[in-house]
Amino acid sequence: MQKKEVSMAELFFDLVFVYVLSTINQTVQHVSQSLVSFESLGKNLVLFLVFYSIWVYHTLLINRFFEQKWYQYVFLFTDMFLILCLSKAINSNFQETFIPFASITACIYVSLMVQYFLNHMLIRHRLSNRLIRVYLTGLGLTIIFFILGLVLPKNINFWFFMIGIIIAVSNPGVCWRASKQNPVFFSHLTERLSLFMIILFGEGIVQIVPTIKLSNFNVLDIVYFILIVSMFIIYSFHYKGSLDQEKNDDSGLITIYIHLFIIYATNIVFLIMHKALSAHTLSSGEQIGYTLAFCLFLFGIFIDTILHRDIDKGKKLYVGIILAATILGLVITNIHFITIVEILAILLLCGMYYGENKSILNKYL
């Protein structure tokens, strides 16, 4: 399959989503005193799924159809503006801004639906009609539930909106056979995911900056900077050692869904990290959530790695290191010591992986 490059417009588009994640984090901080309360995590997850589902549909659309046509750019920048408007409707009290939030989300999905149909009709491609029907059906059902949510009374309306989001997120996976018969440009997809992660790591570093005081330097700023760098390194090793290759028969769905957990876990880590650096006292629940988010991040990378590259030996050792770091994190009661444990675990995993894949990774170092 011919290699497809990521365009500058796509990178520009991704910047908006990282801004949105930052906005979600700022909103969730005011939901309750604990960042890992059921309400906080629930609202964080719902908002995350809304934007991640939009990103996935848009990324798969560009992956399969984008040929730098003028109307494709018009749709791309229109969607970008709508997403910015949608970010302004993010509120810790869903009902307060439900009408504009659900309305703009529905408009974005209508735009995506029109784009799938229009590109299918106007561009010569290798995709089957079945795949297009799958996406149009999923988007259409999602829009119907959004409209029902807009006309139904309060409290009931949210659940119809939520059903629409679940349909949107799960539809590509449920209809995986159609996607398997119409593989994506795999290296393009993984490059988009990796660049999204890099921007997200950059956002994590930006969160450290406000806490740095030259007149009263804190060594913890260095510790958390090293943490983000170590997360960046292990993800880079994962991408360059496992994902940076073209495949002729991959739907990309497994990698997309695994990255849902990787991105969400990374975001939770940065959310709790920011609270710790702001000198706020963390509850035991938040420290547990911090540790489990790291566990999810590392297992997500590990699973995605073994699915795309054979690890001849040491699988049990990789799992053992992740579990040991998680158990220690759950036992330790100080978040700064938990962070040091996670850094050491990540560096150990990186060292092992580099030793086994030195010939591949040296091409990029």
TrEMBL record:
Top-level taxon of origin: Bacteria
InterPro entries the UniProt entry points to: Low_temperature_requirement_A
PANTHER family xrefs: BLL5714 PROTEIN (PTHR36840)
Protein name: Uncharacterized protein
Organism, as annotated: Staphylococcus piscifermentans
Source species taxonomy: Bacteria, Bacillati, Bacillota, Bacilli, Bacillales
